[in-house]
Write a structure and sequence with these properties.
CATH superfamily: Amino acid/polyamine transporter I
Shape: globular
Order of helices and strands: HHHHHHHHHHHHHHHH
CATH topology: Amino acid/polyamine transporter I
Strand content: under 5%
Number of helices: 16
Number of domains: 1
Helix content: over 70%
CATH class: Mainly Alpha
Radius of gyration: 20 Å
CATH architecture: Up-down Bundle
Length: 402
């Protein structure tokens, strides 16, 4: 999830950890078990570990570049300094591509869950009415702004945490050990682009750096612990889903491009698990959607020099919601594809290639000093670069042959 949560101004390490974790945990929960589950739990865990470590490393690289900049600097100003005007344009384009892909996936994946939630509540609602109600509701909240969204987000996050804990606790009784033994290592790698998307948090590092008063030790621990929490959360979630849902049903969900909570609700015989899974999915998706939408409004407002109030904010909100809404309405099964594109191209470029380039130019060419124990060694940068190119190549192969 790409939310921007706000905490007090005490600069506590705990708040920094929660900010990183909260930014990462979100709608990726609905996609991961579908794309990783077909390879089996152990291959999924292996690739998840590699992607987590990669995103941890590039986050630490992004932190180094942020510390070289004046307080309050953002991605575009960093790209302008280290990569020049073309780098600034490429960074901006990568940001928009990533976030528009995420918006498409959230709208396409959210509407079926939204319909199911109303159906359970005894209020059946059909498409396309549900689609436009869902879209306009969250566009309106985005237009109203941060204060209202922050309050709603805290409620949603509480619901997300409670439903997740209950799901793992109750759902563990449904696990069939034999389902966890399936292993197809060859296809596990194709889940990596979606995993990139799930572990993205780099966009809030500049904000976190200011919040923690550029305290390197706190910042580094916030990133290490803050990314470890999503890794544990996602790993338990994949364990639950892969151990509960038969392989053929996971393959069907992947072919149909639907969120995993849809399949969970249909397969399990425990009514509480289906209901919890439904609302857990809704909470995860909405918190992600609101965070991304607010970030995009701020980014577009900053890039166009439009005030983020009144009529201008309405225009910016429309630009954020209408293009992905039109796309998601015409391609309702694009949920998984859009998240994979976001990770395979958007995250790989924005939070892979760009931080590597920042540090290589800043440290190895411009000779800026680095903080102790930072992962800036040339050999390590080459390994990260090769891994990033592998993810991009995997995404291209999926587009060509799937």
């Amino acid at each position: 999830m790409k939310t921007k949560e706000k905490f007090d101004t005490s600069g506590s390490l705990l708040s920094g950890i929660l900010l990183i974790a909260g930014t990462s945990i979100g709608a990726g929960m609905l996609a991961l078990p579908v794309v990783t589950g077909v390879s089996g739990f152990y291959p999924a865990l292996f690739v998840s570990t590699l992607c987590w470590l990669f995103m941890l490393a590039t986050g630490l690289l992004f932190l180094e570049a942020t510390l070289w900049m004046p307080a309050g600097s953002n991605l575009l100003s960093m790209a302008g300094r280290f990569l020049g005007p073309w780098g600034k344009w490429i960074s901006g384009a990568a940001f928009l591509f990533l976030y528009y892909c995420l918006m498409v996936s959230y709208l396409a994946g959210g509407v079926p869950i939204f319909i199911d939630a109303f159906t359970i509540s005894g209020i059946p609602i059909a498409n396309p009415y549900a689609f436009w109600i869902f879209t306009l509701l969250f566009a309106s909240l985005t237009f109203i702004g941060h204060k209202v969204v922050d309050r709603i987000n805290w409620i949603l996050m509480a619901g997300l945490i409670i439903s997740y804990v209950l799901l793992i606790s109750i759902g563990s009784t449904e696990i069939k050990p034999q389902l966890l033994e399936h292993r197809t290592w060859g296809i596990a790698w194709f889940a990596a682009p979606t995993l990139f998307s799930a572990y993205g948090y780099h966009n809030i590092i500049p904000t976190l750096t200011t919040y923690l008063n550029r305290d390197v030790k706190k910042l580094r621990w916030a990133i290490i612990i803050g990314t470890s929490i999503p890794f544990i959360v996602y790993s338990l979630w994949q364990w639950l889903i892969i151990g509960t849902i038969p392989l053929d049903q996971l393959q069907l969900a992947q072919a149909q491009g639907t969120p995993i909570t849809e399949t969970l609700q249909e397969i399990v015989h425990h009514s509480w698990i289906g209901t919890l899974g439904l609302f857990f999915g809704l909470f995860a998706l909405i918190t992600s959607l609101l965070g991304v939408a607010l970030s995009m409004v701020d980014f577009l407002g900053d890039g166009t020099n439009l005030p983020r109030t009144g009529r201008s904010r309405a225009i910016l909100t429309a630009v954020v919601f209408l293009p992905p809404a039109a796309f998601a309405l015409n391609y309702p099964q694009i949920f998984l594809t859009a998240i994979s594109l976001a990770g395979g191209f958007g995250e790989a470029i924005l939070n892979g290639l760009i931080p590597i380039a920042f540090v290589y130019i800043g440290h190895h060419l411009l000779k800026f000093p680095t903080t102790p124990y930072s992962p800036t060694n040339k050999f390590f940068l080459v390994i990260l670069l090769l891994f990033t190119n592998l993810i991009i190549a995997l995404e291209i192969i999926q587009l060509l042959y799937h």
